[in-house]
Amino acid sequence: MHDIVIIGGGPAGMTAALYALRAGKSVLMLEKNVFGGQIAYSPKVENFPGTDSMSGSDFADRLFSQVINLGAEFDIAAVTDVEDLGTHKAVRTDDGAVIESRSVIIAAGVKHRMLGAPGEVELAGKGICYCAVCDGDFYRGKKVAMIGGGNTALQEAIFLADICNHVTVIQNLDFFTGEERLARSLQGRKNVSCIFGAQVTSIHGGDGGLCHVRVCKEASGEELRILVEGLFIAIGLEPENGPFAGVARLNENGYIDADEACLTDTPGVFVAGDCRSKRIRQLTTAAADGTVAALAALSYLA
């Protein structure tokens, strides 16, 4: 039986593993995709303390090597259920395994909603970004586009307008769904243009990066070709917390309802990172959550 099973191999999960392993606990990390999480797709990270610049994949690789060298076990598997059995927890995976552990840390992260447009997957990290705060500075002085019309899209478009030559905002509805004050602030910028009632139909690259997007106005059928060097997509995040509903309360948006203490309603089950209800989702806050959840788990095990 393991001391701690950590569900998710992103920065939060691997930081939790780091602290637990240094305390002498046995740790199994379960990840259904690739270790590193969303940060692994970021071409450059320049906002992590103590590091001028690094790629997200390099950061993820170093952290993974660090926890493996400390003795962490790991497996590629999707968790389908977590059951509280009192003295221990049962973690079930999609390959039929039942893993017993004295405690569990849920660090399953979230995934960005994708457009599903042709070219998106191929150009992710090569001009297509999902976080303006993380990657916007790489497009300083350039022409970019923002997809979305909610608060996040509006806030990030305003941020981009301050540093980019021009920002084209593309919204599939005929109006913004975000706050009116944000919409007014954005539309008051001279270097911002907005296209409403339009869908991105395809994304195109050249010379190793993004070069333009094609957009269709639904009402008229008019097609536009927009030259951009950066495309930011902010159409929402999707937590995948369904398998944990039996041991952790989910809010109306599907996030695990837990505060900065990283505690769930079930003793011995903790949560860290983007999958919990929180306002700020950054690499630094994910690592902080991993630390807090690990220390809470160690206290529980003691």
What does this protein look like?
By secondary structure, the chain is of the alpha/beta class. The chain folds into two domains: 2-111 and 237-301, FAD/NAD(P)-binding domain, CATH 3.50.50.60; 120-233, FAD/NAD(P)-binding domain. It has seven helices and 17 strands. It has helices at 11-22, 56-69, 120-123, 132-135, 151-163, 180-187, 283-301, and strands at residues 2-7, 27-31, 73-76, 79-84, 89-93, 98-106, 110-112, 128-129, 143-147, 166-170, 192-195, 198-206, 209-217, 223-227, 230-233, 237-239, 269-271. Strands 1, 2, 3, 4, 5, 6 and 17 form a seven-stranded mixed beta sheet that branches. The protein has a five-stranded parallel beta sheet with strand order 8-15-9-10-11, covered by helices on one side. A three-stranded antiparallel beta sheet has the order 12-13-14, with no helix packed on it. A hairpin with a 2-residue loop joins strand 12 (198-206) and strand 13 (209-217). It is elongated. It starts with a strand and ends with a helix. The model has no long low-confidence stretch (mean pLDDT 94).
Q: What is the H-and-E element order?
A: EHEHEEEEEHEHEHEHEEEEEEEH
Q: Please name the fourth-level CATH homologous superfamily of the largest domain.
A: FAD/NAD(P)-binding domain
Radius of gyration: 21 Å
CATH class of the largest domain: Alpha Beta
Helical content band: 10-25%
Shape: elongated
Instruction: Compute the number of strand runs.
Output: 17
Overall pLDDT metric: 94
> What low-confidence regions span 5 or more consecutive residues with pLDDT below 50?
none
- Strand proportion, as a percent range, falls in 25-35%
Query: Termini distance?
Result: 16 Å
CATH topology of the largest domain: FAD/NAD(P)-binding domain
Which sheet architecture does the biggest sheet show?
Answer: 7 strands, mixed
Structure annotation, total helices:
7
Q: Which quaternary structure do these chains form?
A: single chain
Which second-level CATH architecture of the largest domain applies? 3-Layer(bba) Sandwich
